[in-house]
Design goal:
single chain, alpha/beta, Rossmann fold, 16 helices, about 35% helix, globular, binds zinc ion
Amino acid sequence: MTVFEYGNDIIVIDMGLMFPNEEMLGIDYVIPDISYLVKNKHKVRGIVFTHGHLDHIGAVPYLLEKLGNPYLYGTPLTIELIRDRLAEFGMDRKARLNIFTVNDNIRIGNFELEFFRVNHNIPDGVGIAIYTPVGLCVTTGDFKFDYTPVDEKPSDFSRIALLGGRGVLVAMCDSTSAEKEGHSISEKKIGRTLHRIFETAKGRIIMATFSTLISRIQQAVNSAYQTGRKIAFSGMSLEKAVEITVRLNYLKIPPNTVISLKQTKSLPDNKVAIVATGSQGQESSALARMSRQEHREIKIHKGDTIILSSSPIPGNERSIYNMMDNLFRLGARVFYEKIMDIHTGGHAHKEDMKLMISLLKPKYFVPIHGEHHMLVNNAWIARELGIPSGNIFIMENGQILNVDQEQKGLILKDKVPSGYVLVDGLGIGDVGHVVLRDRQQMAKDGMFVVIITVNKDNGALIGEPDIVSRGFIYMKESDKLLKEVKNQIKKIVDTKGKKDLSVNEAYIKSRIREEIGEYLFKRTERRPMILPVIIGA
Ligand SMILES: [Zn+2]
């Protein structure tokens, strides 16, 4: 998410979500902190989207109302994907959606916007040229250059060069693959490899890829059609993406080519191709269910050819490898990126980046999108092309680049709030640091609940303390430990707990947490979460 502000006008570019890392237990999504925008929502004139990936549109349903329902702008497919996402929240009717094409100019407040087509692994992506009163800023969005894309045009080099000719003050460029050498592989080349597999496979073909990687799905459809196979789709997000892109004519499927999963069973194996979700091994995805033989319609058997037309997103490797191993065990032949060119990413490599920077010739260069080390790599490319290091700004989330009327750029000392807001089920931002730490502690060492009943009048312990634990120790085999813990609890209640229970309840609880915690650590070297419960009787 990038914010442009001039005078009384703010426009926002993209509003995506992030998937949680391993430490964010139970968290579904991470969305940006927009408290600065909420404070200035009277200035927010609109949100403009570069493309329809979730990390660029996904936070819209959570944040739109907080900003007073501003106008949303995007290309046809991007807007349709936003509409679809809003519909899941029952918000699509109210949203103010505006479609633009690459040939449109739009004025939003003080800003005049122009667009240029870029290739990416979703159709209809654009870079945005923003004419501000101070100068021209260009943001590439996620992009790559593909001279032979599938069923769409290459990036619009002439328009990018035109912008460069007009004088670009600030260029913000996608850094995701800036560490990778050379040019990114063309989608068409991937298609040739896929087609060879389609031609030679004797049994069914099941290909897993990203739901919105329409060009790849198109190539599977084409190859299936040309090799006399019918095609079926499996997985909710994929079926939805196919429905939308067929309706908007991005994905073109010849008549009588698509069949249902059920119908695949009545055809010979070599007449069947299936495109499925699960390229990342996600537990509930179609291919993962097939790999566990839990899929209702499709059972994997010897002779099946599986194609993982994707690359692992860091963090997903383990689940992908488990899934692949299971598929091999079931007798399938599995093709994946490491052994064959069956996937290409959606981001510019080094040489592509050099072309982009050379065409734009910006005064200031700001690498965007990607981890810090990717931004640094991208900055080196700009440096190599002669942009002085003083004109390259590697920015952290929340930092402000200020460019004045003399076109002097400077990163300000003050930052705007930029933390992560965690989404868990219906709760937005209600899972904070403390809740997360509790979850981590419970996941690591389990929990240990101490229940004591005390006399309301004199604070004396009634009966034995009760202990319940989960994920900590096997209770039945820890008699001795539990007995000692109970004795210690009795001591705490007896010595400090008497008189005026209302004052001492908190005190007893904190002593139980501290002393029992310490004791358990000494005996087990584990730190379970300790939950004291006091019942007054
Ligand atoms: Zn993207």
